[in-house]
Amino acid sequence: MRNITKFQDKVYELCKKVPKGKVTTYKILAEKLGTKAYRAIGNAMNKNPYGMLSCAGKGMVPCHRVVASNGNLHGFAHGIKKKAELLKKEGIMVKDFKIINFDKVLFKLR
DNA sequence: GCTTTGACTCTCG
DNA sequence: TCGAGAGCCAAAG
């Protein structure tokens, strides 16, 4: 495990920084990493070494809290539907794979 | 080591 | 407002 690169590790760290009931965007993560690799972020997540289970795991990598810049869930690996429901559970209003109160649940890593 | 791909974002029409 | 194209970056083949 953990056969990941520094880049991915950094991404995961930032993801874990996102509190429950909040979400962040790929763009913000990239900015925090000091790069514009928006795609690389998602790409790293797609090959997610932690596995999708990390989302429902304990303090793992809540990849489902990472959405597009416009608050859209875009497409996730194991079904965005499931993640949409999961986000709703956390108090985030999701409609048609889009976060309604996006600006309210958006967590800025600062 | 070069080419292809991708959970992205921005701009133009 | 919606659709298509271009740009950027990193990992995998």
3D structure, described in words:
The chain is mainly alpha-helical and 110 residues long. It has 6 helices and 4 strands; from the N terminus they run αβαααβαββα. Strands 1-2 form a two-stranded parallel ribbon. A two-stranded antiparallel sheet has the order 3-4. A hairpin with a 2-residue loop joins β3 and β4. α1 packs across α2. The longest helix is centred in the N-terminal third of the chain and has 12 residues. It is globular. The termini are far apart. The protein binds a DNA duplex (13 and 13 nucleotides) through α2, α3 and β2.
Any chance you could write out the topology, listing elements then pairs?
Elements: H1 6-17, E1 24-25, H2 26-33, H3 38-46, H4 53-56, E2 66-67, H5 80-89, E3 94-95, E4 98-99, H6 102-105
Helix pairs in contact: 1-2, 2-3
This protein binds a DNA duplex (13 and 13 nucleotides) through helix 2, helix 3 and strand 2.
